[in-house]
Write a structure and sequence with these properties.
The complex is a heterodimer. Chain A folds into 2 domains: about 150 residues, Rossmann fold; about 150 residues, Rossmann fold. In chain A, helix 1 packs across helix 5, helix 1 crosses helix 12 and helix 5 packs across helix 6. Chain A is α/β, with parallel strands linked by helices. Chain A is about 40% helix and about 15% strand. By secondary structure, chain B is of the alpha/beta class. In chain B, helix 2 links the parallel strand 7 and strand 8. The chains are: A alpha/beta, B alpha/beta.
C-alpha cells in the first residue's frame, strides 16, 4: 500500500508528518538536525525566525490537550506563522457537522497547515487524503496509532545524551496497548538503527503480535531493564483498572513502576524519560522522576524545536531552511 | 407459450452431477429437458452458449438492499440490477432493515417490491427477537406465513444465551431454520479489525478470533440439546471452520456460509486504513483465508454469499473506526468465484454448487438445479471474458467496493429468471 508515501512529495521531501513509520533513516536524521538548529531560537532575545511568515496554521484538536497544543502553538509563532486554535470537541462536529465539512470550511479560509489531534486511529491519514494538495497535515496524535512529533522529540533527547543510536538498548515500559507514543517510538528507534528495543508490560497491556514491530517482549521489569541505556516510561490511564486489564495502581507500581531499586538493573548512565503528564507513584517514583537520571523536563523544551523543524520542513523549501540555519 | 432453447453450452449442474456440453429447453418458465431434446421443440428464442457455461442461477444467502429504511444506500430496484448481472436469481434478506422484519407487514412489503421489479426472488428472514433487541421472541409463525424462510439475529448481539436457547427451541417448533451471525460482544467490544499484526501497527481496536469461536461453540452446545436446523453465516476464521466441520461430523443439523470478501482479502488489505475493507466479521489472517477456501471443497462451508452491504459515500469517508462496516459486492459474486476457480483453489463444480444447490438445501425451498419441472432460473457464463473493475461502471448504488482496480476473468452473459431473460451483457451475442 502507498499509505505512508502520502507523507512525501514527489521529490521525496516531507509533505505531511503523519507517522514515523515508512520514513527513511536519513529523513529522521534531517528532522533531528533541523531541530538542533532551531533549539537555539528560544534562547535569543527575539525568539522568532521568519520562515513561515504569512502562513496560517490551524491547531485542529478533536481531543483535549494542553501541552501538545501549547508547544505546537509556540513552535508556529516562533516561525512567525499566524495560528488559529480550534477545539472541535466544543465546536461544529458536536453540532453534527461531518469531519469533511469542517475541513472544507477551513480550506475555504485559505489555511496552509492543519495540526491534527483526533481520538480515531488513522484520522490524520484520512484528513491528508481529503484536503487539497497545497495543505499540509501534521499528526499531533491519532487514537492508538501514532504521535510522531512526541517520538521525534524523544529521539532528539536521546541523541543529545547518547549520540550513537546503533549502540543503544532502549526499554519502553507500561501501557503499550493503548499508546500511540510507544508505536511511534518503536518505528523511530528501529529506523534509526537502535541495537535493541524492548517493551516491558503485563500481557494485558501488550497488543497482539507486538514482536512483529521489531521489539523484544518482557513481562518482568528487572529482567527487561538489564543493561539498558534508555528507559521510556508510559502514562497509565485510570480506565485500565475499570476494564479489568489491571488489578490496581498499587500492584502496577509494585510490578512495573520505576523505582531507584529497579533502576539499578539498567546501565549506570541510563536516562529516564516520560512523555508526561506523570502519575507519580503509579508508573514512576517521585525520587526517580525528579532524580539526576531523569530528562523529562528536557523532553518538554525539545518539543518546541522538533515541532518547529517538522512544520518548517513540511511547508518550506529546503533552501529557505538552510539560509535561516546558517 | 414461451419456449427457450439454450444451445451448445457446457452444462454444469452439480445437483444432478451433470458436466457436459449440451442444450437446455425451457417452456413457460420451467425447465423441460436438459441434454436430450424434447420432441418437435420449436423455440421462440435461441441462445447460443457455445464456449459458455450454463448452470443454475445463483442463490445468495445474505444480501442487503437497504429497503426499507436506508434507500439513500440502495433500493431493491437498484441492487436487483446489480444482482442479476452476476447471475443471481434468489437472495435471502437479513431482517436488519428499518423497520426490522419482525412483523408480517415488513416481510410482505419487501416481497412486493421484489415482485414489482420482477427479476429476482427475495426470501426475507424474520427477526429472531422483536426489533432485534435480543429480548422478546417474534411471532415466528406469522412471519413464516408472510413468506419468511427462516429467522435470524442478522448480525446483532446474541450474548443472552437464555434468549438464544428459547429462540432456537421456538423456531424449531415452528419448523423454521435459524440463521445466525454470531459474535461475543464482550470480546469484540469496540473492535474494528482482526486482532493481529496489522491492528497492532495501525492502532485499531482489535476483534479477537475468540469473539467468533466462543459464540459459535456456545450456540453449538445449545443446538446439541435443542436441535436445529441452524445456519451459521459469514465465518471468518480457520477455527470456526473446524468447529462447524466437527459439528457436522457428529451429526448436528448445521450449515454455514462465507462472504466472498473473506475468500479474497485478509487483514493485510486493511493497511493504509482502507475503509472499503472495514468488514464485520473482520478480514483475518492469510491462514484463515486459506482455510475458508479449503472449506468450500471439504464441504464444511456449504455456501458462498455476497454479504452485499451497499453504503453511501459518507458512510466510508471518515477515519477507519468511524466508518460503517460492509462492502458492496453483489455484482462481482460470480467473477470473484471464477477467479478462485481459475487459480485452482476449488473446482468449478464445487464453486457452482456453493452458489446453487448447496444454498438451496439450506433454504429448503427447492431450486438450485436444472432438474426438469423446476423454475427455469439459469445463468450463462463466459469463463474467458476479461474485464477490469471500475468504479464508474459499478451498477450497485454502493460504490464501497474493495475490488475496484482488479482485473477479473469470467462474467455472466445471461441471467434467466422463471424462464425470462432478465439480464444480458452488452458484449454477449
Amino acid at each position: 500500500m502507498a499509505s505512508d508515501n502520502i507523507q512525501l512529495d514527489k521529490n521525496g521531501h516531507l509533505k505531511h508528518f503523519l507517522s514515523t513509520e515508512g520514513l527513511s533513516r536519513n529523513l529522521l536524521f534531517d528532522i533531528l538536525d533541523h531541530a538542533e538548529s532551531f533549539a537555539g531560537v528560544g534562547d535569543r532575545a527575539v525568539k522568532k525566525v521568519p520562515i513561515l511568515r504569512g502562513k496560517t496554521i490551524v491547531n485542529l484538536f478533536f481531543e483535549p490537550s494542553t501541552r501538545t497544543r501549547t508547544t505546537f502553538e509556540l513552535a508556529a509563532k516562533r516561525l512567525s506563522a499566524d495560528v488559529l486554535n480550534l477545539n472541535i470537541a466544543q465546536s461544529a462536529t458536536s453540532k453534527g457537522e461531518s469531519l469533511q465539512d469542517t475541513l472544507q470550511t477551513l480550506e475555504a479560509m485559505h489555511c496552509d497547515m492543519f495540526v491534527v489531534r483526533h481520538a480515531s486511529s488513522g484520522a490524520a491519514h484520512f484528513i491528508a487524503s481529503q484536503v487539497s494538495p497545497r495543505i499540509r497535515i501534521i499528526n499531533a496524535g491519532d487514537g492508538n496509532h501514532a504521535h510522531p512529533t512526541q517520538a521525534m522529540l524523544d529521539m532528539f533527547t536521546i541523541r543529545r545524551h547518547k549520540p550513537d543510536f546503533t549502540k543503544l538498548k532502549v526499554a519502553i515500559v507500561g501501557d503499550i496497548l493503548h499508546s500511540r507514543v510507544a508505536r511511534s517510538e518503536i518505528h523511530a528507534l528501529t529506523t534509526l538503527g537502535v541495537n535493541e528495543v524492548r517493551v516491558i508490560a503485563p500481557l494485558t497491556l501488550l497488543p497482539s503480535k507486538v514482536e512483529s514491530l521489531g521489539v523484544h517482549v518482557f513481562h518482568d521489569m528487572e529482567k527487561g531493564l538489564e543493561n539498558v541505556d534508555v528507559i521510556i516510561m508510559l502514562r497509565l490511564q485510570r480506565e485500565r483498572m475499570r476494564n479489568a486489564l489491571l488489578p490496581s495502581e498499587k500492584e502496577f507500581f509494585v510490578s512495573h513502576g520505576l523505582t531507584e531499586e529497579k533502576l539499578k538493573a539498567a546501565k549506570d548512565d541510563a536516562i529516564v524519560m516520560h512523555p508526561g503528564p506523570i502519575n507519580r507513584g503509579v508508573e514512576i517514583d517521585t525520587q526517580v522522576a525528579d532524580g539526576e537520571r531523569s530528562v523529562i523536563l528536557q523532553q518538554v523544551s525539545h518539543g518546541i524545536a522538533i515541532r518547529m523543524a517538522v512544520m518548517a520542513m513540511c511547508m518550506g523549501s529546503p533552501d529557505e531552511l538552510s539560509a535561516v540555519e546558517s | 407459450m414461451t419456449r427457450l432453447h439454450i444451445k451448445n453450452g457446457r452444462i454444469v449442474d452439480p445437483a444432478n452431477e451433470i458436466d457436459e456440453v449440451g442444450d437446455v429447453f425451457v417452456v413457460d418458465g420451467k425447465i423441460v429437458s436438459v441434454i436430450s431434446s424434447p420432441d418437435n421443440f420449436s423455440a421462440d428464442r435461441v441462445i447460443d452458449a457455445d464456449n459458455r457455461i450454463v448452470c443454475p442461477a445463483f442463490i445468495d444467502l445474505c444480501a442487503r438492499m437497504r429497503e426499507p429504511g436506508q434507500e439513500h444506500k440502495g433500493t431493491i430496484a437498484s441492487e436487483t440490477h446489480a444482482a442479476v448481472s452476476s447471475g443471481i436469481s434468489t437472495i435471502c434478506y437479513p431482517p436488519d432493515t428499518q423497520p426490522v422484519i419482525d412483523t408480517p407487514a415488513v416481510a410482505e412489503l419487501i416481497q412486493q417490491r421484489a415482485q414489482q421489479v420482477n427479476k429476482i426472488r427475495i426470501f426475507p428472514l424474520g427477526a429472531l427477537t422483536v426489533g432485534l433487541q435480543g429480548q422478546r421472541l417474534t411471532e415466528m409463525l406469522s412471519l413464516k406465513r408472510a413468506g419468511c424462510v427462516g429467522v435470524s439475529n442478522a448480525s446483532t448481539n446474541n450474548d443472552n444465551t437464555d434468549v438464544l436457547k428459547n429462540a432456537l427451541a421456538y423456531a424449531r417448533s415452528c419448523d423454521m431454520t435459524v440463521f445466525l451471525q454470531v459474535e461475543n460482544t464482550h470480546l469484540s467490544s469496540n473492535g474494528v479489525a482482526h486482532d493481529g499484526a496489522i491492528s497492532t501497527r495501525l492502532g485499531l481496536s482489535p476483534i479477537p478470533e475468540t469473539a467468533e469461536t466462543i459464540a459459535i461453540s456456545q450456540a453449538l452446545l445449545l443446538i446439541e440439546d435443542i436441535g436445529g436446523p441452524v445456519h451459521f453465516g459469514r465465518l471468518s476464521s480457520a477455527r470456526s471452520v473446524a468447529l462447524i466441520a466437527e459439528a457436522k461430523k457428529s451429526g448436528l443439523p448445521v450449515s454455514a456460509d462465507v462472504g466472498i470478501c473473506h475468500l479474497h482479502l485478509s487483514e493485510m488489505d486493511v493497511d493504509g486504513y482502507n475503509s472499503d475493507c472495514h468488514l464485520r466479521p473482520p478480514l483475518r489472517s492469510q491462514r484463515d483465508r486459506e482455510a475458508l477456501c479449503q472449506a468450500i471443497t471439504s464441504g464444511a462451508i456449504d455456501a458462498i454469499c455476497s454479504d452485499h452491504q451497499p453504503h453511501d459515500n459518507d458512510a466510508k469517508a471518515a477515519p477507519f473506526a468511524e466508518t460503517e462496516a460492509g462492502a458492496s459486492t453483489i455484482e462481482l459474486l460470480l467473477p470473484l468465484v471464477m477467479n478462485l476457480v481459475r487459480k485452482k483453489i476449488f473446482s468449478l463444480q464445487d464453486a457452482i454448487a456453493a452458489l446453487s444447490c448447496r444454498p438451496a438445501a439450506v433454504l429448503k425451498t427447492g431450486g438450485g438445479s436444472l432438474s426438469p419441472g423446476l423454475s427455469a432460473d439459469i445463468a450463462i457464463i463466459d469463463p474467458e471474458q476479461h474485464f477490469s473493475v471500475e468504479e464508474n461502471h459499478l451498477i450497485s448504488a454502493g460504490k464501497n467496493n474493495p475490488f475496484v482496480g482488479w482485473e477479473l476473468v469470467g462474467a455472466v452473459t445471461h441471467t434467466i429468471f422463471e424462464g425470462e431473460l432478465v439480464y444480458q451483457s452488452n458484449i454477449s451475442s
